[in-house]
Amino acid sequence: xxxxxxxxxxxxxxxxxxxxxxxxxxxxxxxxxxTAVALPTSTALIAGTGSSAYTxxxxxxxxxxxxxxxxxxxxxxxxxxxxxxxxxxxxxTGLALGAHL
Length: 101
What we know:
By secondary structure, this protein is mostly helical. The chain is 78% helix and 0% strand. It contains five helices and no strands. The longest helix has 27 residues, at 73-99.
């Protein structure tokens, strides 16, 4: 999934790999939601592991490394900062949504 998104939304010299960012943000929201609904431990473990398998952490790091290799350091830093900031915001959103269920 991440490969398809990245291939369709980014070029080799794109400023930031948008497809990977979208996938990781969506998973952060799902994990926040799962945390908030207080599932039984075994169910939460299975659900969290399943949705975490959907993430693209290694792809995110590889893309960041490639940006650095291409001397696009500003874009590499932006990629890291945006992923962390938006991931935390998405997890908080998931927690808030789950609290209302």
